[in-house]
Amino acid sequence: MLDVTKIKKILVIKFGGIGDVLLATPVLENLRNYFPSQTIYLLTLSKARDILVDNPFIDRVITYNPDEDGSWFLLKNIRKQRWDLVIDLYSNPRTALITRWSGARYRFGFDFRGRSYAYNIKAMGRGGTVHNVDFNLDALVKLGIPVTSKRTLVDINIVHEEFSEKFFNENNLFSKVSIAIGLTGGWATKKFKTNDYIKLIEKINYKYDVNFVLLWGSKEERIEAGKINNAVPGNTFLIPDSPVRYLAALIKNCTLFIGNDSGPMHIAVAVDTPVLGIFGPTNPELQGPYGSKNLIVRNEKLDCLCCNLLECPIGNICMTELDIKEILSKFEKLLILNSISPNLKNVNELNDKLDGN
Prior knowledge:
Helix content: 25-40%
CATH topology of the largest domain: Rossmann fold
Order of helices and strands: EHHEEHEHEEHHEHEEHEHEHEHEHHEH
Structural class: alpha/beta
Shape: globular
């Protein structure tokens, strides 16, 4: 297999969004444990770079933006680095070409159709059958590198912590259980809808005296968060504009996270905040919140779940027809699972609300 004495420089390739890259971070920790003094770089897309800044298990992040950067320039840069081992965790046509062109002694990739030319160490991979964390770690298993950790990681420093603590202190959020609401998502079809988040928050408010921290990323999501804040004033709080590691610090200070499949959902797992993931077109067995302290909920009545469609021909009913009661039931289970005990509302007030008075 690998002649460790001949490996001095290692390149890991992982393209994708923030969530995709986060699910590959266990590879980096195990790789560093096995190669404590070797140089380890990671190549990823520019949009995912910030999630890897200050990662203690790599020496440098190399970024690529396909909309701006020339492929030929990237290939030349990779070639001149003289890598000994390249691990392609993405294995699409572009990353296969990069791996082959690297000239590395050892070139690992998953044996997808049309990519075999690029790799001299290949694994079939278990894509579509195991969680993405385990799929990524299959690379190390094939290379004979021990897997001793499966934790995902985002590095948070004191600057991020102070930013989060300032926001929580200014809004008195440490005084109660604070629930992060994840409004973000790269696909419209996998996003839980704003009006349904409002209904969910109102239902939780019937029973519990808690706060809600509204997470957003894009301008459109900021508008959606504002609608929730206006509809349920008093205990809903919009976060300030927050780069990804500042966002991670905010999520870390929350008691739990409720939201659809997204980068912030995976960030919550990485900072050890319990997650209730809301799923529809994506598969929680493959992309769900990783770990035993987290739960998922979805509309189990449908046979079109996990379709992976960016546009839904039947009205995105996996999200729009998901019963709020099902989410509340899983929410209660998440509280029990993680020994979280929010303050209950006044019993008489609670009965009046439940009776519709």
